[in-house]
Amino acid sequence: MPGPEFSPRPRRIRRGAALTLVFASVLATAAATNALPRDKNAPPLSARSAAATVDRDDVARAAAEAMADGKSGTEAAEDIVSRSGDRWGAVYDKSEYEEFEQALDGEYTGVGLWARRAGDGRVEVTRVQHGGPAAKAGIKAGDRLRTIDGLTVDKRPVTEVVALLRGGDRTRVTLGLERDGRAWTEKLLRTTLTTEAVTVRQLAGGAVMIKVASFTKGAGTQVRDAVRGTPAGIGVLLDLRGNAGGLVTEAVTAASAFLDGGLVATYDIRGEQRALYAPPGGDTVRPVVALVDGGTMSAAELVTGALQDRGRAITVGSRTFGKGSVQMPSRLPDGSVAELTVGHYRTPAGHSVDGRGITPDLAASEGAEERAQTVLSGLGGGS
């Protein structure tokens, strides 16, 4: 599962899945520069994979008419969006969108664990957050996650597993776990946690791994600082596996750590072409290998595509998720938020990411990290 529990409560699994994906990339650059038309009180622009077939005015009209009849405007908007053909079009009530904005600030409510679905459909814990409820309960990476509040999670879509882990602050969740053939349950109290968006560690041989779990606020600067703090000539393994995305402004800043300005991506809004550029001053010399997988999504794919197309990094791993469409949000009369797709972004070489993903230069599934380190060493990135 690509990242911590960034989705709403399980009472609305579809919307939980959608919010997990909306977190994956917010094109705040265009909004900040007024490059895009938007409502005065609209939330940040986001990028997701979909093809909108309904206009936001239609959604707003449906909500207003429902409210005039004493019905729920949010539910009316949800109905028209669900029938629109926009796969990831969604409507969020006010509290749900506040949770989304909190996630972009680097906070989330959950138990502090990361997990993924293995090839056999089982769900296993990949990492636990230090000091979080899961860590305090003794849950470790490699443990199998069997159930959440009695519901079996094997073979469920990862977005549903994420939604089931989520809940309100100070609410309880019961996890069924297994380790070395021993099964047990843990009752955990959900809490508000700060995400560890960027972590840095030294690898054998002297190279440095920069792991970017998500592009929350400040993550791009953390990547740049980590690169600048690495001695000259030492290679960097940029680990983007399981990165569900985040703020595109942060992704551009992260990419700029390895670029001396220039194009990072292009995108279109209702046919009008726009571009994202890196600021100058990045390191263009040191060896870089980017490690990716099927959980590398949206803003993380933007970084991957920029470094690959511009010859700045060798990419290793498996094909990325393939989510690169742009959505415009707008507030509805009752304060809820509707988002509909209005365009798509492309890599510097003009490749579309949406529905295709990015194929790495060197394919590797099992042992991908070791393969990436070998490649980095071959590029002279060791001590």
Q: How would you portray this structure in words?
A:
The protein has 383 residues and is of the alpha+beta class. It has 11 helices and 22 strands. It has helices at 13-22, 28-32, 56-68, 73-82, 94-104, 133-136, 158-165, 219-228, 248-256, 299-309, 368-378, and strands spanning 25-26, 46-47, 90-92, 107-110, 113-117, 123-128, 144-148, 151-152, 172-179, 182-189, 191-194, 198-202, 208-212, 236-239, 246-247, 262-269, 272-278, 288-292, 314-317, 325-331, 337-346, 362-363. The strands form 5 sheets. Strands 2, 3, 16, 17, 20 and 21 form a 6-stranded antiparallel sheet that branches. β18, α10 and β19 form a beta-alpha-beta unit. α1 crosses α7 (158-165), α8 (219-228) runs parallel beside α9 (248-256) and α9 packs parallel to α10.
Report the count of strand segments: 22
Helicity level: 25-40%
Average pLDDT reading: 82
* Regions with little confidence, pLDDT below 50 for 5+ residues: 1-52
Question: What gap, in angstroms, lies between the N and C termini?
Answer: 33 Å
Task: Using the CA coordinates, give the radius of gyration.
Answer: 21 Å
What would you call the structural class?
Answer: alpha+beta
Give the CA-based shape. globular
DSSP summary: helix tally: 11
The biggest beta sheet is recorded as: 6 strands, antiparallel
Task: Give the amount of beta strand, in percent.
Answer: 25-35%
